[in-house]
Design goal:
Number of strands: 5
Shape: globular
Order of helices and strands: EHHEHHEHEHEH
Largest sheet: 5 strands, parallel
Number of domains: 1
CATH architecture: 3-Layer(aba) Sandwich
Distance between the termini: 32 Å
Strand order of the largest sheet: 3-2-1-4-5
Helix content: 25-40%
CATH superfamily: 5'-nuclease
CATH class: Alpha Beta
Strand content: 5-15%
Structural class: alpha/beta
Radius of gyration: 19 Å
């Protein structure tokens, strides 16, 4: 049995017996497909701590139908030579720890810059609409947008390496 320090005991320093614990909400993150492939297909050891933060609940991964659909399509690319079982395994591993977002904010469309790669716009929209803290990507077109000030107050675009040092 572990002992609890007096300052961490339920109700310590107060008149009631209600436990008081400081809680921090998880960092809300949108992961681009290239990051998902590194995490769930190739198990890139450099990013193992990123996956651990998602699986522990420290980070809340967010997706929607469009982004999940792209992940599903990319898993089927012939260049990866993934069997149906491996594709399903990657989807299931990610699906077990991701929050599916279904809303939208049509009123805020003008607040987003246009990404030079139209296929990446959905990640910007998901990050904005879901009130994500970060969009984590290795995509050059998205990272170019990070250098501009137009996303200030919405979310940050970070590489996986930057996300690991920023949290």
């Amino acid at each position: 049995m572990t002992s609890v320090p007096p300052e961490r005991e339920a109700g310590a320093g107060s008149q009631d017996s209600t436990p008081v614990f400081l809680s921090t909400s998880p960092k809300r993150v949108v992961l681009d497909t290239n990051v998902l492939v590194s995490l769930y297909v190739f198990a890139d050891s450099r990013f193992a701590p990123l996956r651990a933060r998602i699986e522990s609940g420290e980070w809340q991964a967010i997706t929607n139908d469009a982004c999940l659909g792209e992940f599903r399509r990319v898993l089927a690319y012939p260049m990866f030579v993934l069997s149906d079982d491996l594709q399903q395994s990657a989807l299931a591993a990610y699906g077990a720890h991701v929050t599916h977002f279904t809303g939208s904010r049509q009123d805020a469309v003008a607040a987003l810059p246009r990404c030079s790669d139209r296929d990446d716009q959905k990640f910007l929209e998901l990050a904005r609409d879901s009130a994500a803290d970060w969009l984590v990507t290795a995509d050059k077109a998205l990272l170019r947008l990070a250098r501009r000030d137009r996303l200030r107050g919405l979310f940050r675009i970070l590489t996986p390496e930057m996300a690991l040092t920023a949290s």
